[in-house]
Amino acid sequence: MTEKDIYKTITKASPEVLFKDKNSKFFGYAFPVTTEEDVKSHLETLKKEHHQARHWCYAYQIGKSKKDYTYRANDDGEPNNSAGMPIYGQIQSFEVTNVLIVVVRYFGGVKLGVSGLINAYRTSAQMALEASKIISKTINFEYAITFDYKNMNKVMRIVKEKNLNVINQTLELSCELIISVRLKEATSIFEIFDRLYEIEIKTLND
């Protein structure tokens, strides 16, 4: 079975959404993120913007495929699993990754109970994702191909035949191409260049 090489994410921060229940206000936001530093930065900004709020609950997932996902769900003082996990559930439901969802709560004086909180946080997260532009991206491998100028035609013929995406090139006496290849084609492309005499290929991905 071929590993899935497409993932869904969002292109930019969602517009602010608002869900209300018994005078409590829940402001929902979705952000594209690729590092935990990105997560921290968005949380700090929202805490300044909503400094009078009671809770800043969130969930995020980072990574392009199931085997390298990093995720976290935070209830931020709400009862266990009443906020972070319902938010994370929407990330899973929409099948998106490299995304952070934050729901900021202003307490309205009336307790909602655990089931009320779960509904409020889940709905706010859902609204934030519905307001976002979700796109599909491919998981790509990057390779560096190095060769002498005399072998240029040999390399370029394969690049053309296989319709490879060249993202950088240095064409001098000693040449280097940086190519980007979809995950499902990565092994076969590597093997084609690896078999060629006087041509080196190496993986640039972590």
TrEMBL record:
<protein>
    <submittedName>
        <fullName>YigZ family protein</fullName>
    </submittedName>
</protein>
<feature type="domain" description="Impact N-terminal">
    <location>
        <begin position="22"/>
        <end position="129"/>
    </location>
</feature>
<dbReference type="InterPro" id="IPR001498">
    <property type="entry name" value="Impact_N"/>
</dbReference>
<comment type="similarity">
    <text>Belongs to the IMPACT family.</text>
</comment>
<dbReference type="InterPro" id="IPR023582">
    <property type="entry name" value="Impact"/>
</dbReference>
<dbReference type="InterPro" id="IPR036956">
    <property type="entry name" value="Impact_N_sf"/>
</dbReference>
<dbReference type="Pfam" id="PF01205">
    <property type="entry name" value="Impact_N"/>
</dbReference>
<dbReference type="InterPro" id="IPR020568">
    <property type="entry name" value="Ribosomal_Su5_D2-typ_SF"/>
</dbReference>
